[in-house]
């Protein structure tokens, strides 16, 4: 009963009318990526998402990935392998990848649109190719020439997939504690030994080879994170000449039994003197891995967005069909035995909350994709520096806010169904379960908050924040005399003045107590997210007014923006109050006071 239809109209509005991607792509040298090509990509990806993998969403949840202990092999749910073959054959695995290694060389922004649709259609399936793109980016930016020649082509054309192997049983986010070791073999390769957990797509039956990027320590490695190196460890050995050899000493020891994303294989991976190749230089592993990790964080943000969209579509359809009670102000459909529940204010509150967070969040997420293109392609050094600073600032906001809002949106969608939202056959409880993991993997929400507050704001002196404030200031100045936008420009301008003041207050308190950073981080992240969406909603109304969109579309944008400013943006007041309370309410209670 649960279906998905790619939101092409709003995707086109976001890409063409608000972000003006055609103009930006032309300036960056993507001359061939015109609207005709972009439309073709969007429509074909929508077809694949809607007709091939969306129908497998419930199948994956019911059957799950299965593990054979005797062989260490993992079987994907029925239909997953065949769908991946279609995906690879159609060239989707190399959409954003360099042409010189067999990719299509399209902008990252188009890959962002693709990922949103895939994640919405079938999150568990989309997890299998997800990390391959990050692995190819890492190889492209940090690999030696022979490594690029050997590994990139088969990964880009989909014959091989990739993973990111960081977490170990005794250490999660604190990678400085990892114990996996790498010992030189004397022939340029290394023997990798250790255990990694929570490895998405660490083992599966979709491809013959899986290229693991593994964090490990060399014998002379200094302690902590400064002693981490990254190694290429394929499931099947691959020599410097590209020759494929025997099975490597890499084995899946188990797969996790999870709350959601049952069709996605979350593996325990054991490396027992497995042959690996150093990438990125000795003790420089985090530099290489962050290339992959930051891309994955943006992609996980899109997972939250995609799940929100699918949940909203089904809740909206149900709310239009479900008859229950009469509207308090009088029957709206007197010819029917009861009114559809969409007439009731509380149902509208839940639907509008989803719509506002999804459509605003879509611009937040796709703007990050556009920043990737600008930083990669611009010839203006100052523009590149600004794009990279802003992207770094926005990455934890995209990851944390879009996933937390994904949990909120799938919850509201379930509520719209009432008791049926709890019943498996409607598919809403699966979306709610699947959404929950997005707030955890690739760094929990708390980790994203610390990254934003501690590194991107305090350590880097708010370079990205200043770029964003400049964007807001430019928009407000351009529309200062526009009466039709005054209801949005005024509050947005006030927030733009408050944001740096709030930041400075936290920094001043942190001088005397370092815990003030951690105490403020979570609230500061969501304050930033809500202000960011206020900017994108104001821009959406301006773009809609200036566009050739139907009047009904323009009216819907304006009314949704009004709802956002009236009902959701005031959440910033709670976050400001919490930040003002400081660290004391969190830190005064002694550890013993929490109970036994």
Characterization of the model:
The chain is of the alpha+beta class. The chain has a domain at 445-596. It has helices at 8-18, 21-28, 35-53, 57-63, 80-89, 108-121, 123-142, 145-156, 285-321, 345-377, 381-417, 428-438, 445-459, 463-478, 486-512, 515-546, 551-568, 571-580, 584-587; strands at residues 66-68, 73-75, 160-165, 181-184, 190-200, 209-216, 229-234, 236-238, 244-247, 250-255, 266-279. The longest helix is centred in the middle third of the chain and has 37 residues, at 285-321. It is globular and about 80 Å long. The chain starts with 7 loop residues before the first helix and ends in a 9-residue tail after the last helix.
Task: Calculate the terminal CA-CA distance, rounded to whole Å.
Answer: 46 Å
Helical element count? Answer: 19
| Whole-angstrom Rg | 24 Å
Strand content: 5-15%
Strand tally is 11
List low-pLDDT spans: none
Assign a percent range to the helix content: 55-70%
Oligomer: single chain
Provide the structure class.
alpha+beta
How would you state the average pLDDT, rounded? 95
- Sketch the major β-sheet: 7 strands, mixed
Order of helices and strands: HHHHEEHHHHEEEEEEEEEHHHHHHHHHHH
Backbone shape: globular
């Amino acid at each position: 009963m649960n279906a998905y239809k790619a939101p092409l109209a709003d995707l086109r509005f976001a890409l063409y009318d608000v972000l003006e991607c055609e103009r930006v792509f032309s300036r960056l040298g993507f001359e061939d990526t015109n609207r005709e090509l972009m439309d073709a990509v969007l429509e074909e990806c929508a077809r694949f998402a809607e007709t091939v993998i969306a129908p497998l969403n419930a199948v994956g949840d019911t059957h799950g990935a299965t593990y054979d202990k005797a062989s260490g092999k993992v079987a994907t749910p029925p239909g997953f392998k065949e769908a991946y073959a279609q995906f690879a054959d159609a060239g989707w695995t190399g959409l954003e990848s360099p042409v010189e290694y067999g990719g299509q060389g399209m902008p990252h922004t188009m890959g962002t649109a693709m990922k949103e649709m895939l994640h919405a259609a079938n999150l568990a399936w989309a997890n299998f190719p997800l990390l391959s793109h990050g692995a190819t980016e890492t190889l492209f930016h940090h690999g030696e020439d022979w490594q690029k020649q050997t590994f990139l082509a088969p990964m880009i054309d989909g014959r091989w997939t990739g993973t990111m192997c960081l977490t170990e049983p005794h250490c999660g986010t604190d990678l400085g504690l990892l114990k996996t070791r790498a010992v030189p073999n004397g022939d340029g390769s290394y023997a990798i030994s250790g255990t990694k957990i929570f490895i998405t797509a660490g083992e599966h039956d979709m491809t013959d080879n899986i290229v693991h990027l593994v964090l490990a320590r060399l014998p002379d490695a200094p302690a902590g994170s400064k002693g981490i190196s990254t190694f290429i460890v394929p499931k099947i050995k691959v020599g410097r000449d590209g020759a494929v050899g025997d099975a490597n000493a890499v084995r899946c020891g188990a797969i996790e039994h999870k709350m959601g994303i049952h069709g996605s294989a979350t593996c325990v991976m054991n490396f027992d003197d497995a042959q690996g190749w150093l990438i990125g230089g000795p003790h420089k592993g985090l530099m290489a891995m962050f290339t992959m990790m930051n891309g994955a964080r943006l992609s996980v943000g899109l997972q939250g967005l995609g799940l929100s969209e699918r949940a909203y579509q089904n809740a909206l359809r149900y709310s239009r069909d479900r008859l229950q009670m009469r509207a308090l102000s009088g029957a709206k459909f007197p010819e029917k035995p009861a009114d559809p529940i969409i007439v009731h204010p509380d149902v509208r509150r839940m639907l509008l909350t989803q719509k506002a967070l999804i459509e605003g969040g879509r611009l937040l997420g796709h703007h990050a994709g556009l920043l990737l293109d600008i930083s990669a392609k611009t010839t203006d050094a100052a523009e590149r520096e600004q794009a990279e600073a802003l992207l770094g600032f926005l990455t934890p906001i995209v990851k944390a806010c879009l996933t937390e809002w994904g949990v909120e949106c799938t919850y509201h969608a379930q509520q719209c169904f009432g008791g049926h939202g709890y019943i498996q056959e409607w598919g809403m409880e699966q979306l709610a379960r699947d959404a929950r993991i997005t707030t955890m993997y690739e760094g929990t929400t708390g980790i994203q908050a610390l990254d934003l507050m501690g590194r991107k704001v305090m350590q880097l002196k708010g370079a990205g924040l200043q770029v964003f404030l400049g964007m807001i200031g430019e928009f407000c100045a351009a529309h200062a005399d526009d009466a039709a936008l005054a209801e949005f420009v005024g509050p947005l301008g006030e927030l733009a003045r408050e944001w740096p003041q709030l930041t400075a207050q936290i920094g001043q308190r942190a001088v005397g107590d370092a815990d003030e950073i951690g105490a403020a981080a979570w609230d500061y992240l969501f304050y930033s997210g809500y202000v960011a969406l206020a900017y994108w909603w104001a821009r959406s109304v301006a773009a809609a007014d200036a566009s050739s969109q139907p009047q009904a579309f323009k009216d819907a944008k304006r009314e949704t923006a009004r709802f956002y400013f009236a009902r959701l943006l005031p959440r910033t007041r709670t976050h400001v109050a919490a930040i003002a309370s400081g660290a004391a309410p969190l830190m005064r209670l002694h550890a013993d006071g929490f109970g036994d």
